[in-house]
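Input chain follows. Return structure tokens only.
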Amino acid sequence: RVLSLARRGLWLYTHPLLKLLFLPQRCRCKFFSLTETPEDYTIMLDEEGFKELPPSEFMQVADSTWLVLSVVSNGRAPSGCQATGVTKIARSVIVPLAEHHVSVLMLSTYQTDFILVRERDLPVVIHTLAGEFDIYKEERGECVPVTCDDVSNGFLKPKPATSPTLHPVQSPQTRFCVLTVAPDTLPAIATMLIDVLFYSHSPPREAGAGSQDLDSITFFAFSLIEGYISIVMDAETQKRFPSNLLLTSSSGELWRMVRIGGQPLGFDECGIVAQIAEPLAAADISAYYISTFNFDHALV
């Protein structure tokens, strides 16, 4: 599920969010991601986690149910090594899906990149990618091969090419760090994380204050997926954490953001990720990509 929480309604969700952040064994949630932007909080989580969140006027849930694809090389995910982000799968996955009019959401983490597709688009996704990849689905913890025959014949022919919408981009001056922490050290930074996520807010910006010369931007992303933790925070916020507990790539480099969209993008438009990822891949530039409920964010 993909949903948006209004900033002014965060108080209502503090308890379930703390449970999802720090006590995943209590709610059997295996996929949880929370991203704070100036507008709202975007949450992507599995059905078990979704049960923890009470419906309210502050929560807006995307209509579709989404499935998570991850691309692994040689049959296994990289263990703890830093992904080069979305550009390594741009040509083989993202561009072909855009050409077949499949709308995707991206969630890059420290460990890997996840592509979210609508459940109803799965037949098209499998047909599109079966030539390049061995495709497996997870059933009761086991990976089972998927063949095109397993899929109902919902194959869609590509629609006539329409030129994609061009979206404005902004690049705030804020510099970001992409980090991970070992799960057993999470308790040591818990109070800090709670403070950053729930208490140290700048007042929400007025809608329409999206001027092009943004000096700084509120952006914080936390994901806990299959036991792996990934955090994106700005360099100033990082200084508040004990440096020996946060793990970064050996170069420890900082990242800048390109924020895509002048008004909310919606979930039906295809090719936004491809428009950004393909030219970066062609120039051999690593990028992390995080889709949120209203806008997309590439870190380079």
